[in-house]
Amino acid sequence: MLTVVEARNRILAMVQPVSREVLRLADCSKRILSVDIAATSDLPLFDNSSMDGFAIRSDDTGAATRAGLKLRVVADIKAGEQPNLALHEGEAARIMTGAPLPSGADAVIPIEDTDVQDWNTDSVLPEFISIHKKVAVGEYVRPRGLDVRQGQPVLQKGTRLKPQDIGLLAMLGISQVQVHGKPRIALLSSGDELLEVDAPLESGKIRDSNSYTLAALVEDSGGEILRLGVAKDSKRSVENLLDKAIEQKVDLILSSAGVSVGAFDYVREVLESKGELDFWRVNMRPGKPIAVGRYRQIPFIGLPGNPVSAFVGFEVFVREAIGQLAGLATSERPRIRVKLSEEVHSDGRESYLRALLQEHDGVMLAKLTGHQGSGNLLSLVQANALLIIPAGVKCVPAGQEVEAWLL
Ligand code: AMP
Ligand code: MG
Fold this sequence. Notes:
By secondary structure, this protein is an alpha/beta fold.
């Protein structure tokens, strides 16, 4: 039986990033960069005002006294206009936020700090303003290159593009972006007991919930899903569905159930006969039985059937594998340390327990969300974290810290 780390490493060794494509910037949200991006220009692009006010020469204000300093207003600069004037001694130019500074000006005094009362866009430009304070060089000026220097690396390949990343690319005028293709993941369920969610219930049957949970997880981790449906508990039915996945040239096949030691668990057998089975048991709970290998060359991960086990198996093994297929530099979940508010038990396997974290006086306290049976999905719905109890540990007392993944 493999440890979780060994199993994860063997899975990650099976998958490489898929193709690349060039997309319009508007289509790049959540996509993964396949190239490093360096700034194509300085940002801001030019010296500009950070306030609505008056562009001035800071030197002029050395004499600003209680009596005030009078400046002649010689221009009105809107955002989007390039001023073609130079400010001389004793002069000011009305300027709007984001408008370029005229030459000669080296500071802005906000409207609120002048004697101008009426401030709306179509108010008459005053002939003079008076100010009562000394203004330092650069005040309320956003100098060119303050944020970003041309040539500076700004985004690394392998990054999943966040909204703010997309905004930065837009600022730089990068309208076409090289990203990794989305990996295509085939998904099947298996079991004679499974019905479609909209089928009338029959006695002894249950609904195929895993394909919904897993499809949502695949999408969440950046994969594109190909739903194969439900295989019956027969070798031929499992093979038929898997062959469909092969026809569709998917990057990974994901299944649930049929990997244990039940009399009708055919998934492993199919792998052994039509591909290769790398391993099928991991020292963890829930989710010990898992079938990993290849079906006709395509990487295959067979998760356990119990709904919570399938979920945990996905989080422990599949999310990172899809991340790697998708070209993500790192998709390992950050672990945080939390304090147990009750004693927890394990059977010595590496355990992933459903828990609710709540902050009390700056400490994250964790308590289990009810019965940890691997079929109880509500306890997972109610959880906001999975506590990770290391292998070899059977009891952790209340008050002790453990690691957790935020869900
Ligand atoms: P198995 O691995 O086939 O022995 O399945 C283990 C448990 O998971 C059984 O109780 C199954 O009924 C249940 N199960 C298997 N597949 C699904 C599914 N797609 N949705 C919900 N429960 C399932
Ligand atoms: Mg079954």
